[in-house]
Amino acid sequence: xxxxxxxxxxxxxxxxxxxxxxxxxxxxxxxxxxxxxxxxxxxxxxxxxxxxxxxxxxxxxxxxxxxxxxxxxxxxxxxxxxxxxxxxxxxxxxxxxxxxxxxxxxxxxxxxxxxxxxxxxxxxxxxxxxxxxxxxxxxxxxxxxxxxxxxxxxxxxxxxxxxxxxxxxxxxxxxxxxxxxxxxxxxxxxxxxxxxxxxxxxxxxxxxxxxxxxxxxxxxxxxxxxxxxxxxxxxxxxxxxxxxxxxxxxxxxxxxxxxxxxxxxxxxxxxxxxxxxxxxxxxxxxxxxxxxxxxxxxxxxxxxxxxxxxxxxxxxxxxxxxxxxxxxxxxxxxxxxxxxxxxxxxxxxxxxxxxxxxxxxxxxxxxxxxxxxxxxxxxxxxxxxxxxxxxxxxxxxxxxxxxxxxxxxxxxxxxxxxxxxxxxxxxxx
Length: 429
Prior knowledge:
CATH architecture of the largest domain: 3-Layer(aba) Sandwich
Distance between the termini: 49 Å
CATH topology of the largest domain: Rossmann fold
Largest sheet: 5 strands, parallel
Number of helices: 19
Shape: globular
Radius of gyration: 29 Å
Number of domains: 4
Strand order of the largest sheet: 3-4-5-2-6
């Protein structure tokens, strides 16, 4: 406080003495101006006050984090300079049983209850859906680990590319299920599928079924026929990102194919706080803002602000913790600043075509230039240029692996923020 007062005095004196050569600001003329009227004293205070406010009282807008700073954080010099243990602890993935990132037990129990109903002869199938990064694949794998202890036959099928036709889907399933490789007709495939032992068939990355093209209905019809005909014999477990599931239900009544839907919710504040505290402890930092980690679970915890700000998005929580920290003076201590709101100005400046592109990518999971050109009916070169522009802004990632066909997807660290913005602007529902 003393430093603040000293600075105010210095700014005030500097302003006063710098204006002593100006007759209108002499002390003896302050009360009466040249024409005899009272001067506007507020103007005389404006400059020093603006200097004080700029230094100590920055506005909320000044404290907002630019979206591209978030998306490019892991390439920044600051991140590279961080302690290796911190970077290891705050990587984007679960730490096994050391934190609650893995799943909520209630989600596993719910799926197990559906599985047991199927074992009893009920016609049961289930679709999992949730925001990107909520652990759908992890939840599916944990369930499989539990049911295989009872010698239950199972297959995990992870779709790696867009399903282009009925035959494409039949080929993908037959290969994954170990069936004889041949060009099956739909009825023949269903007959062969019913001859297999009762199996838990888990299909991940269902967003690769979504496509806004003319042949999309044929793919969905074949998937529907297979699940409806075999769901009593096999237990179908489908996993989809939330926006893709909404599109499948809105456009193709996909919810009618399964007996149960299960929404995997994002983390609440308590879960997020627990996760972040465990990450710091795992990195070997046991004091945050002079508070021992074992006492950080209270509502007044400095981590609580981050837990509220990230709104259940784990990737944002990890970013805020790393971006807002400085090392304390004590060994293995951290000082953590409050989390600032993300500035969406860069999205607000985008064209409608760009925003619709982001919306379609969120429902498709990813789009290649060829797929984008079909959806938006434009030249591939134009699609490529638009996608690269969004990539340059830090909103998209380009998937370079052989299976992705140069697909562009939302950057994981900001995907939840972008999707929520698109929903608020009615580009998504």
